[in-house]
Amino acid sequence: MDRAYDDRDGKIWLDGTLVPWRDANIHILTHGLHYASSVFEGERAYGGTIFLSRAHSERLRFSASELDFEIPWTVDEIEAAKQEVLTANGLTDAYIRAVAWRGAGLDMAISAKRNPVRLAIAAWEWGAYYGDAKFKGAKLDLAKWRRPSPETAPSQAKAAGLYMICTMSKHEAEAKGCSDAMMLDYRGYVAEATGANIFFVRDGEVHTPDPDCFLNGLTRQTVVGMLKDRQIKVHERHILPDELESFEQCWLTGTAAEVTPVGQIGPYNFDVGTLARDMVEGYEKLVRI
Known about the structure:
Elements: E1 11-14, E2 17-20, H1 31-35, E3 38-46, E4 49-50, H2 53-66, H3 75-88, E5 94-102, E6 117-124, H4 133-136, E7 138-147, H5 164-175, E8 180-185, E9 190-193, E10 197-202, E11 205-209, H6 218-229, E12 234-237, E13 249-254, E14 258-265, E15 268-269, H7 274-287
Parallel strand pairs: 7-8, 7-14, 11-12
Antiparallel strand pairs: 1-2, 1-6, 3-4, 3-5, 5-6, 8-9, 10-11, 10-13, 13-14, 14-15
């Protein structure tokens, strides 16, 4: 659907009520808009079932607590709301976006203790995040921005403000004809793509960055489990950029990205090999059980 996201048919769950899509609006003085007091989740439903739904709802509430606010809906209530949204929109295979934020209220400065916390849930059909990259491998740029130290930002929260440098990095990558960008962390180690975790293969073993300063994605955790079930050695460790030359295969993981092979990162090339394809196919089967 090639239509702006604020101009669509359907229903969005907003603060406990299903409202027409175009009426799901907020005030211009919403705190989350000015000060990034906002957290979110991206989820996918397959055949009417949201993969790892409860884990996403739990993480949404955890992320809010990391930003010093509490979502006034329980995990069970969030779970019910997501199903309500799917049903109301007649969707079975869909992307679900839950977002919570500090709204407009009595405070309009850094402090916002007196402002209400709001929650919205929307769902829509969304195909492959990287287009045909699942077959030929995505092309990634090397980002100039780095993931911050956990001493400077709540790195384990899925917080909106942490994605500002991701948007900037992805725009620069797209201007160069790339699908995405690989980011380093504040120490110079390989971190992740702008919205997905990253894996590498060398000599039949898998290497993936230790998520000690960026989000340990639920899809990442799922794929690590899949690899271990196949008796494949997984090294979760710090990876230096100059190691990329020695890796044979590479792929990205994320709710939107699912499992997407990578064919190139900057000057480094990778095969869309047997293990990468196995992870793509294995994940597809797993989410549709």
